[in-house]
Amino acid sequence: MGDRARTGVSAAVTAAVVLAVLAVPFAVPLDEQAVDLAAKLQPPSWAHPFGTDEVGRDLLLRSIYGLRVSLFVGVAAALAATVIGTAVGAAAGALGGWADRVLMRIVDLFSSVPHLLLGIFVVTMFRPGVWPVVASVVVTHWLSTARIVRAEVLSLRSRPYVDAAVSGGASRWRVTVRHLLPAVLPQAGLAAVLMIPHAIWHESALSFLGLGLPTHQASLGNMVQSARGSLLAGDWWPTLFPGLFIIVPTLAVAGLAGAWRERLNPRRRSELTL
User: Fold this and answer.
1) Interior CA angle at 213 toward 127 and 235, to 5°?
2) CA-CA distance, 17 to 245, in Å (whole number)?
3) Is the pLDDT of residue 96 over 60?
């Protein structure tokens, strides 16, 4: 499959996912507390295309609701982390000197702690819910954006048009806002898109460990965790379909981000193949 075809498939899957998580909750409301023990662990059928879970809930509907939560966490955390990382990286690169050293030491300090361990520390300080998970992803994922933006700003500071602006009497703040930040926004936007799959995996891992969303709430991590007993009993569908809802959308978003990265730097691919 060629690059254009892969990009087309990624775009189609992403569009279908976004349409499903936006339209289905309005068309088919979900009762989080609903239980139908007479229909528990039914295999996939016309009535239940993904089957039912251990308490008789429709897995297709719950998977869509769980993906909705995961996408919200991914997008919200990616935007917040990108804003923080861009601000820190731009400040470090533009100010230089002691400010650069202090900000980068802070980045190194956060980077020295494993992401999952730091995320667990954050979510355990609050009650289970969406916003603590978003906060844990933001705290652990702004670091790479800060490094990328700082490197770009340091590279841009040596450009002739920046030197001309400084020679013309422009302040450091004006140079940063008018010249440096607009130039790094495409890289920051790419970092945000690449962060969405990581945020989804992060939320799923925390929920799987019982530290993310409440157990009754539809979450892909919660669904995989609660299906472990069913898998040992030979019932494969409660684990397979929520797992696919984690893997397929994240691969689609990553494919779109890869195409965007090649457009930003078309020589990257040729350099990597040398």
Assistant:
1) 145
2) 9
3) yes
